[in-house]
Amino acid sequence: SLSPEPKVVFAKEQPARSEVQAVAGASATLSCEVAQAQTEVTWYKDGKKLSSSSKVRVEASGRGRRLVVQQAGKADAGEYSCEAGGQSVSFHLDVTGQSWRRILS
C-alpha cells in the first residue's frame, strides 16, 4: 500500500521565519532545509511565484534548498517564502546601502 506523505515537510531545526540582510549589489541567499531530500519546493516573493531567471537562481543540494538573488537591489527587498506540501518557511529580505564592490565593476 502507498504510505501517506510525511507530515513534516521542513526540517525541525528550520525557523518558521528568518530575517536576512543583504548589501545592495551583492547576492543574497535565502536557504531552508526540507525533511526529505526529494521534496520539491516553490519560492515566492510577496506572494508571486519565482522561477529561475538571470535575477534569481534556485538551487537544491541534498535536503538544502536555496534561492540566490543576484546583485540585490532595493526592489528585491520584501517577503519571501519557500513552500512545499502546504507548509512554508518565510524570510524578510532587507537590502541595505551601496556596496563598495560596485566601484570594481
UniProtKB/TrEMBL annotation:
<keyword id="KW-1015">Disulfide bond</keyword>
<dbReference type="InterPro" id="IPR013098">
    <property type="entry name" value="Ig_I-set"/>
</dbReference>
<dbReference type="InterPro" id="IPR003599">
    <property type="entry name" value="Ig_sub"/>
</dbReference>
<feature type="domain" description="Ig-like">
    <location>
        <begin position="6"/>
        <end position="96"/>
    </location>
</feature>
<dbReference type="Pfam" id="PF07679">
    <property type="entry name" value="I-set"/>
</dbReference>
<dbReference type="InterPro" id="IPR013783">
    <property type="entry name" value="Ig-like_fold"/>
</dbReference>
<protein>
    <submittedName>
        <fullName>Obscurin-like</fullName>
    </submittedName>
</protein>
<keyword id="KW-0963">Cytoplasm</keyword>
<dbReference type="InterPro" id="IPR007110">
    <property type="entry name" value="Ig-like_dom"/>
</dbReference>
<dbReference type="InterPro" id="IPR036179">
    <property type="entry name" value="Ig-like_dom_sf"/>
</dbReference>
<dbReference type="InterPro" id="IPR052385">
    <property type="entry name" value="Obscurin/Obscurin-like_Reg"/>
</dbReference>
<dbReference type="GO" id="GO:0005737">
    <property type="term" value="C:cytoplasm"/>
</dbReference>
<dbReference type="InterPro" id="IPR003598">
    <property type="entry name" value="Ig_sub2"/>
</dbReference>
<keyword id="KW-0597">Phosphoprotein</keyword>
